[in-house]
Amino acid sequence: MKTAAIASIMAGLAVMGLAACNREPAPAPAEAPAEAWVGKEVVLYLPDGIMKERVAVSDLAPYLRAAGSEAAAAAKAQATQPGASGMLLLMVKPGQRSRAWIVTGEPAMKPEVAEAVIRRVEAVPAPSVREGPILVGLQFDAWGGGAAPGGAMAPIPRDWYAHFPKDGGALDDALLAKVWPE
Q1: Strand ranges for the chain from DSSP E
Q2: Which run of H or E residues covers position 5?
Q3: From CA 23, how far away is CA 11, in angstroms rounded?
């Protein structure tokens, strides 16, 4: 009786095994598309003491959230492109004036995508700042990301380097006035 039960179990396993061999393989699960924009870190380009003198955190935080949301919405409205990683730089001057720049590594973000993001972000009402400009970066990955911009932890646009003296320099009010003149 024991032998008959074992034989019956073995026969059932053999039938199941044969049935499995005749099946088509299950389709691989589709990969979810990479998000168009993922915000990562906030980077202060000026010393903390200067930032605190010039803008209240209670004013800056909502501005940065709104700018990040607009950047994400602008990226989502664009056609998918190869992944890019970088920094969205936001400069705010007294009088609630703002400008934005995008710096990416390789592959670079398509110019029309960067322009669309910048237009949306520059439409966000800027906070009040005192005594001089502030410069903040919003680090991001777009469409899964790419290589980070080379160089410094806090990258700047390549054309800004032309404004530094040959022996180096600092990212200060004088440089910011050169990259965004009045």
Answers
A1: 38-44, 84-93, 97-104, 134-142
A2: helix 2-21
A3: 19
Condensed to tens digits (0 to 9), the pLDDT of residues 77-109 reads: 999 999 999 999 999 999 999 999 999 999 999
How high is the pLDDT of residue 31?
A: 58
86 contacts 149 by C-beta, under 8 angstroms:
yes
Mean pLDDT of the 156-167 span: 89
43 pLDDT more than 70: yes
94: tokens are 């007294």
What whole-number distance in Å separates Cα of residue 143 and Cα of residue 52? 34
CA distance 72 to 60: 18
- Kindly report the backbone phi and psi dihedral angles of residue 92, in degrees, each rounded to the nearest multiple of 5, phi listed first: -125, 130
Ordered DSSP codes for 31-46: PPPPPS-EEEEEEESS
d(CA 51, CA 129): 9
Return the residue matching tokens 């989502």.
Answer: 76
Cβ pair 87, 155 in contact under 8 A: yes
Task: Give the tokens for residue 154.
Answer: 């806090």
How far apart (Å, rounded) are the C-alpha atoms in residues 41 and 11? 60
